[in-house]
Every structure is written in C-alpha cells, then in structure tokens.
C-alpha cells in the first residue's frame, strides 16, 4: 500500500496546487471601477426565484444604460441569496420576504411588493376558498373538489420544495407545518407551479401573484382564487387589503458601493416602475 | 537538453497526469465528506432513517423514503427492461433477417445516445398526461419506471448483443446438427453461455437507473413518499439533490451531500456485487 | 416422443411470436418517441431559431447564446481532459503493466469514476470548483466538472488505442535509437490517433447529453457569455428549463431537443465512420 498512498498524496497535492492557481486567477474577477460617471464591471445577483425575473429585466435595462456593465442574475431561493451574499459569492442577494431576526447583519433594500395567491385551472368551477378550506385541502382532510363545492374530482395538491420562502410564508399564514402537508406534486419555481396547474384541471397550487397574473394575461389557463373574499390581484396587494403579501428585497453584506450601489439605486428609482408593473408586481411607495 | 533528460521529464509529466486522473475519485469522495461533515456531526445517524419525514427546515432528515423511491424505480425499470432488452438482442441475432437486423441495431444504438433530458421531456409531455387521464396526477412512480425503462433498454440490448456475438459459432453449428429448434438453442445454449455478459448488462443498466437524475426529476412528482401503488408520486435520492440543492443552506445543504454519499454507497455496493458475480473478470 | 416433439415445436412457435412482438413493440415505442420529437421540432428549427437570442424566458426567440455557451463548456472540457487524459492513457499503456500496482490502482479508480452518477460529480463540481476555488457559477466550472466525467471514458479508449499498437513499432524505434519522446510523438501517437479521436468523440457525446452535473455548476443564465467566468446555459439545461419551468415553453423545447439530437447523431455517425475506416473488425458500443 505504501507506494499507492504516496502517489495518492502526490495527486491530491497537484490538485491543490492547480486549484489554488485557478482560484488565484479568479480573485480579481470583479474590477468594478467607476471613473467619473462611467460604470463598468460585473455584479452577481443570486436568490429568490420570485425576484429573479424582475431583477433580470431591471438588469437588461441597466446594462443598456451603462454599456460595459454586466449584471448576472442567478436563481436559488431567498435563503440561498442570503447565504451567498454573506459568503461574498453574490454582490447582491434577492430575498422575497423580510429579513429574519438572525439575518440583521445584512442591509436590506425593499424593491417591490408581491402577494402569494392560490391558483387553480381555468376550467375549475370553484370561485373561492376560505382559509380553513385551503388548510383542509393541504393537510389531506379534503381530497375531492365536491367537498368544497366544486365538481366531483380528486384534488391534486401542489406544494413547493423545502427551502423556498413562498412555502414559508404560505405555511405561516395558514398556520401549517410542512410535515402536515399531503402533497401530490412537489415543485421548485413559481413557473413550474403555474405550469403544473395549467396541465392538470384538478390541481391546486400557490405561487407569486405577480407570476400568476402575468402568465394568465399571456393566455396560460389558470386563475387566481380570492382569499377570504379578497380578490388576489396586484391592486389588492397594492392597497394592502390582500392578506398574504410580502416585500421583495435586495440585500447586501455592507453598505453598497460602486456598481452595486448604482444598481440598487436604479432598482429603487421610479424609472423601473413600468418594469415592475409589466411583471405584475407592485412598486414601493416612494 | 539531453535526450535522457527529456525522456525523464516526459515520464514525470505522464505520471502527474495519471496521478491527477487516478486521484480524482478520491478528491470527489473527500469533498462529499467535507461538505456532508456538518450534517454527519450535528445530526445523529439514526435521524437519517427514523425521523418522521424529510423536512430539513423543521430538522427532520429521513432519507429512507427516497432510498425506497430510488430502489422501486430502479427495480421496476429493470424488471421491464431486462426481458425486453435481452429479447431485442435475441431478435437481432437469431430471428431477424439481415435486412431487418441492421436497421434495428442502428436504431438501438441511436437510442443509447439520446440524452436523459430528452427522455424526461418526452415523458413529461406524453407519458404524464396520458397516465393523468386514468389516475391523476400522472407524475408518478409508473411514469418514472416507463421513462427509465426506455432509457436503460438500449444499454441492455447493446451489451447483450455484443455478448451474443462472442458465443463461439461452433456451439450454434452443433445445435443445428443436433436438430434443436431455434428457441431451444437460444434458451439452452446461447443464454447460459452469454450469462456473464448479460450480468454486466444488467449491472450497467442498474447503475444508470440509480444515477439518473433529470428524467426522474421531470416525471416522478417529487413528493417524499413511500409509495403504496405505482400511481403515487415518489422522489428519488438524485431528484432530491437536484430539486433542493440550489435552495439549500447550512444543515439542509449538508444533508443533501449525505444523500449524495448514500447514492455513492449504493453505486459502490453495486460494483462490488458485480465483481463477485463475475469473479475477477475485467469488465468492459 | 412425438408429443414431446409437438410441445417443443409449439413452444418454438410461441417463442418466435414473442420475440417478434417484443421487437415490434420496442421499435414502435422508440419510433414514436423519435418521430414525435422530429415532427414537433421541425416546425421550430429555422435559421433565426439558431441565431436569435431567447426572449420571454425562452418561449420566443432562438437559442444562439445557448449554443455558444454549450460550445464553450465543451471547449473547456476538451482542453482540460485531452492533455490529462492522453498523459494518463500513455502512462497506463506504455509504462505500466497489468501487474504494476500504480497502474492497477489508477485503472480501478477510473472504473469506479466511470460508474459514478453525474449528479454526484455535479455536487463535487459545485463544492470544489464553484465554491472552494471561487469560480462561481461559470462556464469554466461547468467545463471542468464535465471534464471529470469525460476523463475515465477518454482514458479507457485512448489506452486501448496505444495498447493496440504492435510491439514491433516500439522495437524498431528503439533499434533506431529514437528517444522516447520522439517514439511517442512520431511513431505511437499517429498509429493510436483514431482510437484517441473515438474516445474523445464518445466523451463529447456524453458531455453534450449531460444536464444534472451542469445545473449547479454552469448555471441558468441564458445570455451571451462575455467570458469563461460568466454563467452560461447548456442546451440540455435549456430543454429542462423550458419544459419544467416555462408555461408554454414546450414548442421551443421541442426545437432545442431536436437540435441536441441532431448534434448527437452527427457525433454518433462520426464515431461509426472512424471506426469503419480505421478498425474494420471491431463494433462500436457507445
């Protein structure tokens, strides 16, 4: 074994050396320079899949305004956005909820408001559900649409995968624990939820109202159900009457500077309100 | 530079390349352990098999339903694909006229190269809605088995085909001289002779089915569930990693690396099992 | 005796029927699959599809940046795996016998590596290249991760190629007093080249088909990459994303799937051609 062990160590050392030299090259990958008014360089955003489409659109406009700037947007969920920002993997994190008590080391910048809406297929006869009914459906106490006033068909319950803030807020609002939920399909992104409901007339799911509304406008056969008598639309989210809403944030590790600062300022300016509206989110009051 | 010196440098360069390639496996295992370490040290091992479910955010880390999911999907696909694959190869070698056998073989070769994401995509748009007509929601163990079967069938058929080609031709001549019927020849002579090759085929197919990620992720529904019937959704170990990895932090992320380790152990067990079955024959 | 013969004969007929049925069922289901993808994909593929950027989350527009990212990822993968793989293959074939412990150790570890599920390699790639080395989600990380997958395949094929070179070549070269470097470069390499190329093509085929190892190494960004440190979406990841996460993305997913199939078919045909041209007696099993 002696020889083989020596070779193995040698190999691992070569890997280490190669690795170090590679990471050395990558260390200076973010030359965010600012000479006068001219911005250049690259920033990386990671986090919530709800915020990501909005951030991408903002990034495209921002890049168009400042040639030489590159803004990369990666999806990965709110907790990931926070972790990446802390570790320095991302310059700006995207979070689709308020910061938790143990996350106050980060700086948060509200960007827009969004609600979480219950969606069913367009052909579903049902017109509304109350909180108890939703909870009963999600815990498996109600398994047929007929029980809650729909047609006689088994309900397909769609839940989100562990680690998404949409899931956390949903559970919080309906006072459920994820271990109580009896799901038939588990999905990742909002769009996947919309897609699964659109493909199954008996499915029920919950997604970002922004995503659902803009998809419904583009002809995807889904509809948002009112929650406790309040319509789930961007208007009710805007006036605060919709009960299940949240604020979408950008977070940074320290006081943002340079390119990050410029981008966050741009994202909070009224210049992006049309983008926010097109994406069916609600702009923050100035 | 003297030529001896150059030869020496060459040898050392080659050795370093080989070293890199040879230690890659250990580097991979090392990193899996490093990343899994927080979970392995913070969470008692029994949690991974006795917790009431997989809810890492609530501190529940039971991997066994996903282990079962992987096993059921693999077993189901093997049960269907093995007879179909072996009979396909039998067809190619002993039943089909040459004009049919060649295109058939080309078709199977083509299929072996189709990426899993395409199988998954096809399963998602064709198989899942089809099953949903009878037993909603459609995304289920059955859909997973169908897609996996399609994926591993070409692997089994191609290797079985190659091992039939290695059956000495005088066996066939002797069988013909004895007046044995075609099926008797195949069942009594060909299959037993080609057995080591067939076992290799099944082992490789099993490895492929266990390790498959995208296709099962797309069609299985991904609910952590010990299935009671084939129409229920399941989540496999691989799908668990792919689905949650991007969103996981802290212990959750480490627990996913533990899923990876579990998968690794399954694959290594399979390789050891295969070597036992085949004696110390070198496999291709 | 006559009864036994009759039984055996009817068994034989039954078996023939079963074998033919299996063949017909298998080929029919696969033809269904392929024709479905070709039929639906044909309508999507056009020159603009190949040269346009994806718009509206990929529902519209083309796949140009995705093709570029895919090619860059492959290029990184080849650039890394060819030199290391060639070196390892030459060492295994020329400098270590079967009894040699070092050689046996490497061969064995490569065999296990070849059977490793791609998702595990993806996990490793994420932990090692993206985070430890700080390359982030990038084309470089993706290509390096794929190189880990391709290495065992390539080394095996290349090693076979060098082993197949008759010893007479080596003896003659030694008798002429050629140095080992010269022998390798001018005698062995040219003869072994077709096998090396076949190994490379098999590896490329595997890399091109890979999805799981790329989703958390090269990422999801569907824009034209500006450098190797940018995230880039591979073709297979694009198919996955369109079919899972984009309502109404199926049509372009069919198009992208057909493009991928055509690329793989080309690679398959190239392998066949080289095999037939240079090694008449051997058959291919990818």
Kindly describe this structure.
- The complex is a heterotrimer of chains A (286), B (284) and C (286).
- Chain A has helices spanning 2-27, 52-65, 78-87, 131-138, 165-174, 190-198, 209-217, 234-238, 258-267, 273-278, and strands spanning 33-35, 38-47, 69-75, 92-95, 107-121, 156-160, 185-187, 203-208, 222-225, 245-252, 282-283.
- Chain A is an alpha/beta fold and 286 residues long.
- Chain A folds into 2 domains: 36-113 and 247-283, Periplasmic binding protein-like II (D-Maltodextrin-Binding Protein, domain 2, 3-Layer(aba) Sandwich); 115-238, D-Maltodextrin-Binding Protein, domain 2 (3-Layer(aba) Sandwich), CATH 3.40.190.10.
- In chain A, strand 1 and strand 2 (38-47) form a beta hairpin.
- Chain B is mainly α and 284 residues long.
- Chain B has 2 domains: 3-42; 54-283, MetI-like fold (Orthogonal Bundle), CATH 1.10.3720.10.
- Chain B has helices at residues 3-42, 47-50, 64-95, 98-112, 116-134, 141-165, 169-177, 182-193, 195-211, 214-219, 237-244, 250-277; strands spanning 54-55, 60-61.
- In chain B, strands 1-2 form a two-stranded antiparallel ribbon.
- The relative contact order of chain B is 0.14.
- The model of chain B has no long low-confidence stretch (mean pLDDT 88).
- Chain C is mostly helical and 286 residues long.
- Chain C has 2 domains: 2-44; 47-282, MetI-like (MetI-like fold).
- Chain C is built from 11 helices and 2 strands, in the order ααββααααααααα.
- In chain C, strands 1-2 form a two-stranded antiparallel ribbon.
- In chain C, strand 1 and strand 2 (60-61) form a beta hairpin.
- In chain C, helix 1 crosses helix 11 (250-278), helix 3 packs parallel to helix 6 (139-163) and helix 7 (167-175) packs antiparallel against helix 8 (180-209).
- Chain C is globular.
- Mean pLDDT of chain C is 87; it is low at 281-286.
- Chains in contact: A-B, A-C, B-C.
- The A-B interface holds A 7-8, 10-12, 14-15, 18, 75-77, 79-80, 82-83, 153-154, 156, 159, 161-164, 168, 177-179, 183-188, 199-200, 202-203 and B 16, 19-20, 22-24, 26-27, 30, 52-58, 60, 128-129, 132, 136-139, 221-224, 233, 235, 243-244, 246-250, 252.
In brief:
The complex is a heterotrimer of chains A (286), B (284) and C (286). By secondary structure, chain B is mainly α.
């Amino acid at each position: 074994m002696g020889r083989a062990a020596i070779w193995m160590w040698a190999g691992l050392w070569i890997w280490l050396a190669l690795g170090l030299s590679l990471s050395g090259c990558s260390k200076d990958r973010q030359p965010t320079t600012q000479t006068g008014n001219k911005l250049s360089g690259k920033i990386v955003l990671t986090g919530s899949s709800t915020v990501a489409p909005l951030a991408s659109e903002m990034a495209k406009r921002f890049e168009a305004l400042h040639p030489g700037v590159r803004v990369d947007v990666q999806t990965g969920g709110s907790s990931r956005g926070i972790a990446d920002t802390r570790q320095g993997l991302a310059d700006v994190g995207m979070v689709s909820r308020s910061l938790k008590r143990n996350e106050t080391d980060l700086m948060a910048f509200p960007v827009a408001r969004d609600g979480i809406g219950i969606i069913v297929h367009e052909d579903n006869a049902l017109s509304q559900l109350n909180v108890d009914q939703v909870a009963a459906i999600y815990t498996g106490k109600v398994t047929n649409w007929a029980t809650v006033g729909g047609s006689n068909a088994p309900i397909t319950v769609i839940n989100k995968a562990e680690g998404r803030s949409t899931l956390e807020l949903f559970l919080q609002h309906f006072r459920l624990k994820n271990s109580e939920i009896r799901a038939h399909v588990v999905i990742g992104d909002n769009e996947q939820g919309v897609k699964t409901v659109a493909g199954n007339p008996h499915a029920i799911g919950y997604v970002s109202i922004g995503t659902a509304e803009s998809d419904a406008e583009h002809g995807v056969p889904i509809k948002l159900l009112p929650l406790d008598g309040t319509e789930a639309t961007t208007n009710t989210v805007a006036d605060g009457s919709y009960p299940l809403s949240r604020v979408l944030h950008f977070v940074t590790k320290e006081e943002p500077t340079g390119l990050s600062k410029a981008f966050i300022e741009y994202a909070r300016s009224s210049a992006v309100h049309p983008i926010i509206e097109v994406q069916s989110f609600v702009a923050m009051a100035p | 530079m003297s030529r001896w010196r150059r030869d020496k440098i060459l040898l050392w360069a080659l050795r370093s390349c080989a070293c890199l390639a040879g230690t890659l496996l250990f580097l991979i295992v090392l990193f899996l352990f490093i990343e899994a370490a927080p979970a392995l040290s913070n969470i008692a091992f029994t949690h991974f098999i006795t917790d009431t479910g997989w809810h890492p955010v609530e501190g529940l880390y039971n991997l066994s339903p996903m282990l079962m999911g992987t096993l059921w999907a693999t077993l189901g696909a093997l049960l269907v694909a093995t007879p179909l694959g072996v009979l396909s190869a039998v067809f190619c070698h002993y039943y089909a006229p040459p004009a049919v056998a060649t295109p058939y073989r080309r078709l199977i070769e083509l299929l072996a190269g189709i990426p899993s994401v395409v199988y998954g995509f096809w399963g998602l748009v064709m198989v899942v809605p089809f099953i949903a007509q009878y037993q909603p929601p459609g995304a289920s163990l059955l859909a997973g088995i169908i897609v996996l079967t399609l994926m591993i069938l070409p692997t089994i058929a191609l290797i079985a085909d190659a091992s039939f080609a290695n059956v000495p031709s005088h066996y066939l001549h002797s069988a013909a001289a004895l007046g044995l019927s075609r099926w008797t020849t195949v069942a009594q002579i060909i299959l037993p002779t080609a057995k080591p090759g067939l076992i290799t085929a099944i082992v490789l197919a099993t490895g492929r089915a266990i390790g498959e990620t995208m296709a099962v992720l797309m069609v299985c529904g991904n609910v952590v569930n010990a299935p009671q019937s084939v129409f229920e959704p399941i989540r496999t170990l691989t799908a668990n990693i792919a689905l949650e990895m991007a969103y996981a932090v802290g212990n959750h992320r480490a627990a996913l690396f533990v899923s990876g380790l579990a998968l690794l152990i399954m694959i290594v067990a399979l390789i050891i099992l295969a070597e036992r079955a085949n004696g110390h024959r070198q496999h291709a | 005796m006559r009864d036994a013969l009759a039984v055996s004969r009817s068994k034989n007929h039954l078996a023939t029927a079963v074998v033919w049925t299996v063949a017909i069922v298998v080929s029919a289901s696969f033809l269904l699959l392929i024709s479905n993808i070709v039929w639906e994909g044909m309508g999507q593929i056009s020159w603009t599809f190949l040269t346009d950027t994806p718009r509206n989350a990929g529902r519209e527009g083309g796949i140009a940046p995705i093709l570029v990212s895919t090619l860059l990822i492959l290029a990184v993968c080849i650039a890394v795996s060819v030199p290391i793989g060639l070196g390892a293959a030459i060492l295994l074939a020329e400098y270590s016998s079967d009894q040699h412990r070092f050689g046996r150790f490497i061969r064995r570890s490569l065999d296990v590596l070849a059977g490793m599920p791609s998702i595990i390699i993806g996990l490793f790639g994420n932990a090692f290249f993206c985070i430890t080395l700080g390359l982030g989600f990038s084309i470089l990380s993706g290509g390096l991760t794929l190189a880990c997958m391709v290495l065992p395949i390539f080394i095996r094929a290349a090693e076979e190629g060098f082993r197949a070179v008759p010893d007479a070549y080596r003896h003659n070269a030694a008798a002429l007093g050629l140095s080992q470097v010269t022998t390798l470069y001018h005698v062995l390499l040219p003869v072994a080249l077709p096998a090396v190329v076949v190994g490379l093509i098999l590896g490329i085929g595997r890399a091109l088909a890979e999805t799981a190892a790329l989703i958390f190494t090269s990422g999801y960004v569907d824009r034209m990459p500006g450098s190797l440190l940018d995230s880039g979406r591979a073709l297979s990841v694009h198919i996955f994303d369109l079919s899972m996460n984009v309502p109404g993305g199926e049509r372009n997913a069919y198009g992208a799937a057909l493009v991928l199939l055509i690329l793989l078919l080309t690679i398959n045909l190239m392998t066949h051609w080289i095999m037939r041209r240079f090694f008449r007696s051997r058959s291919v099993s990818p």
